[in-house]
Amino acid sequence: MENERAVIGGNNPPSPIDDAVAPYGALILECENWCDGGKVETEAQMEVVDALLKQFKTARTAVNKARDDDVREYKAAHTAAIEFWKPTLADFDRIVASLVATVDPFKRKMAAEKAEAERIAWEKANAAKLEAERKAREADAADLEAQREAQQAQEAAMQADKAARAAKADKPRGLRKVKHFEIVDMRALVNWIATNDKPAMAAFAEEYARAHHKTTTLGGDNVVKQWQSKEAF
What we know:
Blueprint: H1 16-21, H2 25-34, H3 43-138, H4 144-169, H5 186-196, H6 198-212
Helix pairs in contact: 2-3, 3-4, 5-6
């Protein structure tokens, strides 16, 4: 009988989760027995649950540590792989940036030239259109030659319009529009957001209050109400 090919994990190694949880099996069962929907009704029951809670928090800390130890190995391997590839990819980025810098001035120049050519083409198209309209208005229906000239002017206007549209479509490749911004008036911007995007402003205010309510009055209780309560832990 042919032996099965050996593979990683083929010997069914124990799960790190099983190893971490195994010492607390009885504790978990006891805690689950208490978590059946019923509520504590006596001081004695409270003391039992508090003791279980203390033990289970210790267990959770130990399992968290096991998790961190397990993850740390993967993180170390991941970090090592990133660092291994970083110099090569950084050099690729430098080559890309250098190629872009090499061709960018010419592409900008070409874009400016094409934009000027498009402007001139549209000027010619508009002028030809006006000329065709003028000749169409002035041509005497009884004057065959005038009618022919009006028709020619119309065809010339159509050709000029076609040329202008072609110039518009003739854009240089490898250039893109990039929008930039600079906040000139922060107060006006905040007021605009408060008026036009209330959910975004509310989310920011909620997070700000959550992060600072313990150390700052935030304008007083008429702005952000603060209070204390006692809760089980």
